[in-house]
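step: validate -> pass
step: tokenize input -> pass
step: predict -> running
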Amino acid sequence: MPPVSSAAHDGDDVRAAAAGDRRAFQRLYALHVGRVYGALHRLAGYDHARAEDLTQDAFIRAWQKLPGFRHESSFGTWLYRLAVNVALMDIRARGADPVRVVDDEHLPDSGETPFCAAERHELEQAIGRLPPRARAVLVLHDIEGWRHEDIGDELGMAVGTSKAQLHRARQLLRKTLGENA
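step: predict -> pass
step: emit ->
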């Protein structure tokens, strides 16, 4: 018998959680927290503490808005969009304030070679130093795979502006990391 997809389980848990079942929401949390945190960690400029706060805020908002979930998309898609919106509102609220760069001790040990880990760390720091809107466009487009139309809708900018911000972010990364980047 083929395994039941997580989306099928999501449906039951979503309905139960929308009716106030905290255990169902805990199951949804456990299933989706990794993807949500990963996206928010990148959008927060690799700031672990900020990403944790944003993840908590996203799940609190999801709990509050769950009774209004219309099932027009999967719960995972809805939650992911909600979480990204939480991060984008945080970026807007912070304006162009510089992002705190993480220390080596906050980076997870992924079993990488020291050379690869150093390159990854350098890239994360460079992304973290990008202006907030350029960073958001870069992360959403190049890492999360969003289309410029969707980025424009989410960030309240024209498609051309999204493309220009992506170009700017890439130029700044090349300048920071060297021309071979």
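step: describe -> Confidence is low (pLDDT under 50) at residues 1-5, 96-108.
step: cleanup -> pass
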